[in-house]
């Protein structure tokens, strides 16, 4: 079978890598992405491995790269995507990359530091200019001559022994939220021996740290006395104020202001040159950093892989073990030969035997990836067991469509998925960061088939946005009924509901060519008819689906050489399932084929027959479907019950007998038997037993109680599961009915009312625009998104619980190859 139906054959290969070419060989294997290395140094700590120094150097470089990347983002720039196909650099290039990156980082630190210092200096000059600008007004004496009587004494020159004291000034700037507290503290500490003037700057100044514009408060304080001045300076220092020299003479202040403006202009020019140089350095970082990041990540991955290899001092080489698909071994050998040819000694690859269960490798395409993801979400398949994904490609969309059947809704889903499929190669679509969009895009082919199958089941149900369509002529004739039944005007007036009798000639002309006849959408018993149809259809689909799962288990038993399981497990399971619920399906189909319209009134009840089957009784009022039905039913129940002890005890007793037989044959031939088991079909077949019973890997550790307990759980789960799982498939009927009724309610509550309003008001077009918009929004939000998600989850449960547990264990692990594909992104 192909790799899609069963995981590929995977071998354990041993690689002998020359020391001089080991890095090149592992790098080439990373480009191929075909092998998964096993850690041969699991008992050695990460700090004691051979290439730990190289790994640390790569990690230090990654820290430098992070700093450079943050600087680029800080400048509002973006790193371009790296060019594809960059190989891992040779080890000698590590020193060159490290030196260049350190030099760029140091240049950025120096330039950023200089720029910061220049901005701080320019900010201080601007604050100083603002403070001097505050003092350009009238003199302080003139300002306060007409002040309040409370402050007038402060402005009078002191008399007496202190009359020679002169007025001094303290000028500076403070943050606005500190200004009120500063003014209060100055007034209380200096007891009013000062005059303080606070004013906001006319223009907002750029903060040198954050770069955001901010308003500052400038202050000008006049005081008398040296002690008062010391107090003022200490208080301003506590508030982290910027204090600047303030000349008493206006001419001196004007000259200082001009000098500050000139210095600010010079600083702006220097700052512009600094920013231009910074942009040049950032441009070099933008050009060099993306390829460096890819190369160093690849180099680190190579050294981490080399740390998993063991060192052979005898042969002066590195020894590695890796899982690889058998068909890829020649490609691996050729790649290693090409990589090690320059070293003079070619690398060697050869298969080695292994008793461990190999990893699972299933190659997928764009189309099959989403279906394989559904299976892997349940559990990764065991090595070489049957893969449910190929069958899920058909069964999953179909079961979804059974619950979601509507031509209109399915067509909308199909067109949405088709648009994603047609645009899947566009870079903007692939690189979208929205998680919901990524989820839909990843399952675009699944949505495509779900929509397509929904259109198909919608034609079967004859529903398009809950409306029936007349594609073919109806199989029912009202004219024939009216002509032969003698309907009069009085009869029609007294009977608003009319019934069509299929037993009258010409009333029922034959079945509808495809799907349900559209006349049923007009019938009062429409819901009753669809309930009966969909319920029986759900049981038929469920039993068929489960039986198919049991049959798929046959391929597992044949492949693993477990022939006893065919007789002791698969055959009893089929007899139990088909003997009980297969017979139920037979009765449904038999009744459809044998009971005609003439005998519909006295048709037997399948449900009562099925209940009587388990009670070994009969109902006088319920006639049999066929002669000898009671005998057949009793025989099927007895046969189904007889398979339970076979299913429970057969496998444990056979394994116990086989175990003792092997022990008797072991003796002196034990070594030869172990060697032969590696190549015999039994060895391949033992993979399942090793996965299910780890104790069976060694024959001496066989424990009957564990095997019996496992088989008892399997038997109880299967027998009870056949009943519960069959009932679980009735969700197909329930979800289909709910979807149809929601569609009907939405049409009746929105579109039908809108159409009625249009006729009354005479403005059909004007009314239908908002009505149709509301109908479209509700259809997408409720019926497509919510109902679609509900049907998806129920179909998922039917596959995981009811279908896959019949043959699929899901206890394996994926082959995780060493590859650089993720490093290139």
Automatic annotation (TrEMBL):
Coiled-coil portions: 246-277
Keywords attached to this entry: Coiled coil, Hydrogen ion transport, Ion transport, Membrane, Transmembrane, Transmembrane helix, Transport
Chain spans, region Disordered: 677-696
Principal subcellular localization: membrane
GO terms classed as biological process: vacuolar acidification
Location within or outside the cell: Membrane
Regions that span the bilayer: 398-423, 444-461, 504-527, 539-558, 570-590, 597-615, 635-655, 761-786
Record has Glycoprotein as a keyword: no
GO MF annotations in UniProt: ATPase binding; proton-transporting ATPase activity, rotational mechanism
Biased composition (Basic and acidic residues): 681-696
Bilayer topology annotation: Multi-pass membrane protein
GO cellular component: plasma membrane; vacuolar proton-transporting V-type ATPase, V0 domain
Origin: domain of life: Eukaryota
Stated role: Essential component of the vacuolar proton pump (V-ATPase), a multimeric enzyme that catalyzes the translocation of protons across the membranes. Required for assembly and activity of the V-ATPase.
Family recorded in the similarity comment: Belongs to the V-ATPase 116 kDa subunit family.
Protein name from the UniProt record: V-type proton ATPase subunit a
